[in-house]
Specification:
Layout: E1 8-11, E2 14-15, E3 18-19, H1 21-37, E4 41-47, E5 64-69, H2 78-92, E6 96-100, H3 103-116, E7 120-124, E8 126-129, E9 135-141, E10 144-148, E11 156-160, E12 177-180, E13 212-216, H4 223-236, E14 239-242, H5 244-249, E15 269-273, H6 279-282, E16 290-295, H7 302-305, E17 308-311, H8 314-330
Parallel strand pairs: 1-4, 1-6, 4-5, 5-12, 6-11, 7-11, 13-14, 13-15, 15-16, 16-17
Antiparallel strand pairs: 2-3, 8-9, 9-10
Helix pairs in contact: 2-3, 4-8
């Protein structure tokens, strides 16, 4: 069931009328895929009072923006959003459909894929087009990466982590169309009622947007050592990242975890301290421009991917770095 499907779609998620960066990042990658296939790139937007903002998505690479603008779609609700998306996909028949691996995206994508009876790859870190024009969906796997194909069903669906692809620079000279689509929601059974929505601002600098990241792993050892990680990050104006052990110990938050089960970052500078460097973590830092590793084990795998390695006890190195950076900061 692949005949008659054509075009690349990107679901651009919004909150309170503002587009999430991951949707814009996917438009950049979607543009590459659409050009490779020689097909149209469409952005799909659901919400309330969003049609006037939809035109901006053309500058990020969309040829067309499909907008469903209704009061009931102001906030994400599974039944309503899944009904709209499923109906539009069945009608328009895109070949590729990409969504951000956000909390909402991870709920919406499998719901829609199940209704369409098609495949879905979750939390992809790379997307490619093979010689037969099929979407190759690359995901982290045990001690490596796995390439997934959906050869017999359409659309080919994938969710992609925020920060995996770079945010494209908007091109205001691009031209395209905005098409408002009407979908009847009166007969849709909405089994979950949204009573109230609480938005909590993230603490510190978001990992996905940080130019510098300081991360700690199991080798940190205790909370006192973790405070050194935070102090170094503070003096550098960096975001704090972590592997699974600091999270389990309660030193780090879940939104600070980097790797296969966490986030993907692409900073200009990544400093990994007390991190062994297993594949599960390294997949999250593949696109960092400069990697610095501090570990007292010279055989730690992290040194294989590091641009600069320091084999030493971090408790002796990090305080020196903090003081040195403070002096540099004070002298401008």
């Amino acid at each position: 069931m692949t005949e008659g499907y054509r075009g690349v779609w990107v679901f651009v998620e919004q909150k309170k009328g503002e587009f999430l960066p991951v949707g814009l990042q996917l438009l950049g990658k979607g543009r590459e895929i659409a050009d490779r296939l020689g097909e149209k790139l469409s952005a799909l937007v659901l919400g309330r009072d969003v049609k006037d903002k939809a035109k901006a998505l053309i500058g990020y690479g969309a040829d067309e923006v499909l907008v469903v603008d209704q009061p009931k779609l102001e906030d994400y609700q599974t039944d309503l959003y899944a009904h709209v998306v499923t109906e539009l996909v069945q009608k328009e028949r895109p070949s590729v459909f990409l969504l951000g691996a956000t909390y909402n995206g991870r709920d919406l994508a499998p719901t829609v894929a199940g209704r369409l009876e098609t495949g879905l790859s979750s939390d992809c870190t790379r997307l490619e087009i093979d010689e037969e024009g099929r979407l190759v969906q690359v995901v982290p796997a045990f001690r490596g990466m796995a390439s997934i194909l959906c050869p017999d069903r359409r659309p080919q669906m994938a969710t992609i982590r925020p920060g995996v692809f770079r945010l494209p620079a908007p091109d205001e000279s691009r031209t395209g169309t905005v098409r408002e689509v009407q979908v009847d929601l009166e007969t849709v059974e909405n089994r979950a009622e949204l009573v109230e929505l609480y938005l909590q601002e993230p603490e510190g600098k978001p990992l996905e947007e940080a130019e510098t990241v300081v991360a700690g792993g199991a080798g940190i050892g205790d909370l006192e050592g973790w405070k050194l990680i935070e102090d170094l990050a503070q003096v550098l104006g960096a975001a704090v990242g972590a592997t699974r052990p600091p999270l389990d110990e309660g030193w780090a938050r879940e939104d600070q975890m980097i790797g296969q089960s966490g986030k993907t970052v692409r900073p200009d500078l990544y400093i990994g301290i007390g991190i062994s460097g297993e594949t599960q973590h390294v997949v999250g830092i593949e696109d960092a421009k400069v990697v610095v590793a501090i570990n007292n084990d010279p055989g730690a795998p992290i040194f294989k991917v590091a641009d600069y390695g320091i084999v030493a006890d971090y408790r002796k190195v990090v305080p020196v770095l903090i003081e040195r950076f403070k002096k540099l900061k004070n002298t401008g």
